[in-house]
Amino acid sequence: MHLKCLEIERFKSFGPYTRIPLLEGFTVVSGPNGSGKSNIIDALLFALGLSTSRGMRAEKLSDLIHQGAAKGEVAVTVTFALDSATGGGDLTVCRRLKVNGPNSTSSYQLNGSPCTLTDLHEELARHHIYPEGYNVVLQGDVTGIIAMPARERREIIDELAGVAEFDRKIEAARRE
Ligand code: ATP
Ligand code: MG
Hints:
Elements: E1 2-9, E2 18-21, H1 37-47, E3 73-81, E4 90-100, E5 103-110, E6 113-115, H2 117-126, H3 141-147, H4 150-161, H5 163-175
Antiparallel strand pairs: 1-2, 1-3, 3-4, 4-5, 5-6
The structure holds adenosine-5'-triphosphate (ATP) and magnesium ion (MG).
The site of magnesium ion has 2 residues, from helix 1.
């Protein structure tokens, strides 16, 4: 599968509507410092349901709203082109965040139909996409992995290889 398109509304440095089409294969985004390259990755993580604003380099969720936006609402839609092995066609994921004073609410859609965050994460996991995982390697992650104790590094490798899930199942069975 590959990332086919990102549609960004009022997220961080992006105004009312920006559409970023992506081709299959290797893509490079270049631009001056502070021009919004990393914000594209933050927007992707946002749509995948990342809950911590820190993971999107913001103090709080309301900081994700474009400064000067006419309304306190952001939305990001991500379209994946699926491989024929996983059914082909497109998978579209959308998250909308509404901020009203100190309150914020997120709503999610899968292929245009409203769903819960759990539904979203389950669907993404079927395609091996994990917003908290290592599909996205952020600035500093590589040095972090090199510098961490061997045991922690092994845990990451186990997670990536899919072994950790079986370890958790073994542990759960032992407790029963
Ligand atoms: P670098 O090359 O330094 O990594 P970059 O292209 O990755 O830069 P980003 O970190 O994506 O840049 O963008 C930072 C910019 O986003 C800053 O100029 C900041 O003012 C702007 N920005 C962040 N949040 C908002 C917001 N809520 N409203 C408007 N602009 C924002
Ligand atoms: Mg950057």
